[in-house]
């Protein structure tokens, strides 16, 4: 066998930004939607808050395990 050459990985900033957007983007969007419709329909706003919290919890668990 020959000599092993270590592979160089280039700049991974784009992948990190994409993972962070997937982690926080939809949860932030659901939170903003909940804040906007809070005056009109408080029950629907609470549903959006719960969806945002659950999405954030799951995405931090999945994407957090991918990052570390």
TrEMBL record:
It comes from Maribacter algarum (ex Zhang et al. 2020). Keywords: Membrane, Transmembrane, Transmembrane helix. The keyword Membrane applies. The chain crosses the membrane at residues 15-35, 47-67. This is Uncharacterized protein.
């Amino acid at each position: 066998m020959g000599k092993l050459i270590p592979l160089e990985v280039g700049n991974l900033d784009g992948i990190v930004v994409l993972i962070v957007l997937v982690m926080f983007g939809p949860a932030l969007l659901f939170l903003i939607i909940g804040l906007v419709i809070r005056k009109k329909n408080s029950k629907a706003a609470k549903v959006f808050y719960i969806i945002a919290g659950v999405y954030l919890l799951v995405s931090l668990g999945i994407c957090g395990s991918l990052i570390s």
